[in-house]
Amino acid sequence: MVSNLLFCGIFLSMTQIANGSASDVFKYWFMSLEFYATITFLGSFLAVVSPKPVVASVLVPIIVGIWISTAGLTVPRSMITDTFIWVFWTNPLQYALDGLTSIASYCDLDKPLCLDSNRNPQCEKNPAACPSCDCPRMSDTGNNIFVWRQVSNIRSLNYSRIHYDMIALLLFAILFRILTLLAFRFTRHYKRT
Description:
Number of domains: 1
Strand content: under 5%
Distance between the termini: 38 Å
Structural class: mainly alpha
């Protein structure tokens, strides 16, 4: 917990992301803490159900590899077929990535200094049309698109879903913890003979 707070403090100040308010920093820290707890409890569960530690050490990278492949980074959510969308929605990594990316990249584009609820559409691609807009842009792409616009479109992000992502991660952590306790109770290789 403390090491995660230390990491977030160094990482967020070094990268200048999620530093708009104390709320953003707290949300980023808490969401990463939930994900670390989820991974830790998954590892504990696999260690308990595996007859030997080497089995658990093989299973963890396999599961995490599957999570990475289906978290919406390699294949965006919009391209996942209906047949396999359940893999995406049962993946704790996608909740962590969606939430952390939303916290790190979000900027209210509709505020008066920027697009002003589409009353200033020139601001979309021309920074000179809204010089006071402090939302970061992807200037290296040649079209000065807003970072949040690009990231949210590619990854199908919605800033208002952050609380749902936090709840989902918390439920995954609780689920893996309960499964670990049940495994301690019912796994035969832990019972005394």
